[in-house]
């Protein structure tokens, strides 16, 4: 938390114009950002402390993204930095809070996509990369390929000199108990962010530790463009969370874009069609932003940790319907 | 080759009805099958021997698939067996003929999809699986997941007791020379098969060794549903071959289905839209079959090793336009 506050402080210190937050917001022009911390079943009877912890993390993440966009920086930067924040926060099933596989290890997935030119980068099954979303961005920016998996992806991280950690770094007592007790996670905890910046560029990203007790090598939808993540400046950007296999089979993220492109659906209509008619109830949700800055936070589960902010002053985080 | 002839002989011996090929064809009702052995640039000046070797392999593969369908077996069986044949034939960049990675190893990818219920299985980056397509089918049939990558996928193969080989099994002198000389493969050599059986079920599959000199861990479109492979009984089945990164970014296989579903395009119109308008020239091709048994063999390269057969007696293999 202190690191984030320091980071924001540094951003503000390096901004030489003597303006307050409101004038910064104006300087970045128009933008919209949406975030999620996973769709699932959080009991409405959780303690006030747990509820506030979730809401506080969502607020800090959203504020970070809003700050980046309001300074006129890109949606790609906002998406990467927000997801890095989630990855470093053990509340979420991504980075530090990643769940355990069936053999007691951690395998992480992430993807990022740039709506300007459909360029994209992703990593699947990495074991030693502290922030998979940043390696995904390096795959996009620095390699001729779009997806790396397994040991090759970890080696790539070393080559690019991203922060490397022992696999045990991802051990969290709460996740360990879930694994030992063979508990299904009460919330999936995958994280995602989608934003459109003042230049009309849409970016989307997703990061996850996958399913508690997943078989080693299992890849879900989060590192797969079209399934878990998608961005196209002509339509929308999407990040999904839920039962990954269903998201892959139903091409969820791309399909929301396809309905807009091919059937002239609005973002809301597309999201509702896919989340309520194509996907079965209880399977997950999506966050999305379209090229006009409209947004959708659509889920068929009891809860989805989520937030939205825009240049008109909207700033909301929520858990239940 | 002898093994294949023996296999066909066994199929015939175990067919107790005293009928010839024509009556077998009738017993299987209506079907269509298309195959590919990669899109790329085969010089029209290749020797007669090389040309005949390609055409002969295509014929044997197509005959095998036709035989299975004509006996009333499923399109899934036809797709798996045809791709196994290609994987065992060192002419193609899949299984035995897989190209070398930048560090002199082999990493193989494959996927299969069932149009009945969108179920699918895939493996990425396997190093010891003789027939990746059959492990992909086991992922689909026997696990709750759809995609396994890296060591976890190889371990799954051991668990399912598929045939395991040393990575050196995939060493082929011709591929070694390409790698040593840092030659781009003159033809990509990815293989695929799509079929519709008499029950109206569409199946599609793809298998590849990837790109010569690819970075270890790189995953292309072949193991990715929506990008390299897709099948939906309501529209069509597709298998792609070409520059995988472009196929992923443009959701090629699913997009052909989406244009039929959302814009009522014919299979031919969909295939032409994606291959000639969305993909850049020289990037690859697709084979596809729709729910009526129509087919498309569409490519924007000089050549695509391909074939088509159906229950109306069509049986064609070709290389160039």
Question: What do you see in this structure?
Answer:
Two copies of one chain form a homodimer. Chain A is 36% helix and 24% strand. The first copy, chain A, has 321 residues and is α+β, with helices and mostly antiparallel strands. Chain A has one domain: (Glycosyl)asparaginase (Glutamine Phosphoribosylpyrophosphate, subunit 1, domain 1, 4-Layer Sandwich). An eight-stranded mixed beta sheet of chain A has the order 4-3-2-6-5-1-11-12. Chain A has a four-stranded antiparallel beta sheet with strand order 7-8-9-10. In chain A, helix 4 (75-88) runs antiparallel to helix 5 (132-142) and helix 9 (252-263) packs across helix 10 (267-278). The two termini of chain A are 27 Å apart. Chains A and B meet through strand 3, strand 4, helix 6, helix 8 and helix 9 of A and strand 3, strand 4, helix 6, strand 7 and helix 8 of B. Strand 4 of chain A pairs antiparallel with strand 7 of chain B.
| Largest sheet properties of chain A | 8 strands, mixed
- Count of DSSP E strands of chain A? 12
Helix content of chain A: 25-40%
Calculate the terminal CA-CA distance of chain A, rounded to whole Å. 27 Å
State which percent range the strand residues of chain A make up: 15-25%
Supply the number of helical segments of chain A: 10
Unreliable stretches of chain A (pLDDT < 50, length at least 5) are: 1-26
Radius of gyration of chain A: 18 Å
Please give the oligomerization state of what you see.
Answer: homodimer
How many structural domains of chain A?
Answer: 1
CATH class of chain A: Alpha Beta
- Most residues in contact, chain pair and counts: A-B, 41 and 41 residues
CATH architecture of chain A: 4-Layer Sandwich
The CATH superfamily label of chain A reads (Glycosyl)asparaginase
CATH overall fold name of chain A:
Glutamine Phosphoribosylpyrophosphate, subunit 1, domain 1
Shape of chain A: globular
Strand arrangement, major sheet of chain A: 4-3-2-6-5-1-11-12
Sequence of secondary-structure elements of chain A: HHEHHEEHEHHEEEEHHHEEEE
Average pLDDT figure of chain A: 90
Q: Which structural class fits the helix and strand makeup of chain A?
A: alpha+beta
């Amino acid at each position: 938390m202190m690191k984030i506050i320091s980071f924001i402080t540094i951003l503000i210190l390096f901004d030489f114009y003597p303006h307050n937050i409101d004038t910064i917001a104006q300087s970045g022009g128009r933008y919209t950002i949406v975030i999620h911390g996973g769709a699932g079943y959080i009991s409405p009877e959780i303690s006030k402390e747990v509820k506030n912890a979730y809401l506080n993390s969502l607020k800090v993440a959203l504020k970070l993204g809003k700050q980046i966009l309001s300074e006129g920086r890109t949606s790609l930067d906002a998406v990467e930095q927000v997801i890095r924040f989630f990855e470093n926060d053990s509340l979420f099933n991504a980075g530090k809070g990643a769940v355990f596989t069936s053999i007691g290890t951690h395998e992480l997935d992430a993807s990022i996509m740039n709506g300007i030119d459909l360029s994209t980068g992703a990593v699947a099954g990495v074991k030693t990369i502290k922030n998979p979303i940043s390696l995904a961005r390096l795959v996009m920016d620095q390699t001729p390929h779009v997806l790396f998996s397994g040991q090759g992806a970890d080696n790539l991280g070393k080559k690019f000199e991203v922060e490397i950690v022992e696999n045990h770094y991802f051990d969290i007592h709460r996740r360990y108990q879930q694994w030992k007790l063979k508990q299904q996670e009460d919330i999936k905890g995958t994280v995602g962010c989608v934003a459109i910046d003042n230049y009309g560029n849409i970016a989307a990203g997703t990061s996850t530790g996958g399913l508690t007790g997943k078989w080693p090598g299992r890849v879900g939808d989060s590192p797969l463009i079209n399934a878990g993540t998608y961005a196209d400046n002509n339509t929308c950007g999407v990040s999904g969370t839920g039962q990954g296999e269903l998201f892959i089979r139903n091409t969820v993220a791309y399909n929301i874009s396809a309905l807009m492109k091919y059937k002239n659906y609005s973002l809301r209509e597309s999201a509702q069609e896919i989340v309520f008619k194509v996907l079965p109830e209880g399977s997950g949700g999506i966050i999305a932003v379209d090229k006009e800055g409209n947004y959708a936070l659509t889920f068929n589960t009891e809860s989805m940790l989520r937030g939205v902010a825009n240049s008109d002053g909207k700033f909301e985080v929520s858990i239940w319907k």
